[in-house]
Amino acid sequence: MRMDFLTADLCDAFPDRVQVAEPVFRSFGGLATFYGPVETLKVFEDNTLVRETLETEGRGRVLVVDGGASTRCALVGGNLAGLAHIHGWAGVVVYGGIRDTVGIAAIPVGVLALHTVPRKSEKRSTGERGVPVRFAGVTFLPGHYLYADPDGVITAVENLLVL
Fold it and tell me: pLDDT of 35-48, one tens digit each?
């Protein structure tokens, strides 16, 4: 998968085709630059659906998790980042917390989150998959494309790298 892009260049080339996320995310994964089609989850303090999704074939997609910005528990840790890598996910963006950051940093997958918190999540099997989620000033829709690098996160309806 091609990683020779800069979000700044994409914004310059396609100003009317991109949404730019507010700069609220920190990068924790072994890949600082990643992109792919979006898959969405909406969960709150329960990562059961996150695990179930990352156990499926990622096919270069980016999992965008709306965790409601909770600071009470982590939705992704080293084990789930490892699953993302094994199953071919390009990255995971968490609007909430993660843990096991030392382990995550060693895994060649993109992981962005708001913060870290050592407490694990509940396991209630609640949440929604494939729904529009909105945070950081952007609406993330399944099938749209997400691009992330050290400058930030942008989204577009189509794959800008083939235009």
Answer: 999 999 999 999 99
How far is C-alpha 3 from the chain's CA centre?
16
Distance of CA 47 to the CA centre of its chain: 14
Give the C-alpha separation, 133 to 33, whole Å: 22
Report field, pTM of the whole predicted structure over 0.90:
yes
| Max intra-chain CA distance, the chain | 44
Helix (H) or strand (E) holding 69: none
Place 163 in a pLDDT band, splitting at 50, 70 and 90.
confident
Tokens of 109: 């997958």
**Choices 3.40.50.150, 2.60.40.1930, 2.160.20.10, 3.50.30.40: CATH for 7-162:** 3.50.30.40
Q: Which two tokens stand for residue 25?
A: 């995310």
Question: 137, 22 in Cβ contact below 8 A?
Answer: yes
Structure tokens at 6: 């800069």
**What tokens were used for 147?**
């691009």
Q: What is the dihedral of CA 32, 133, 20, 91, to 10 degrees?
A: 10
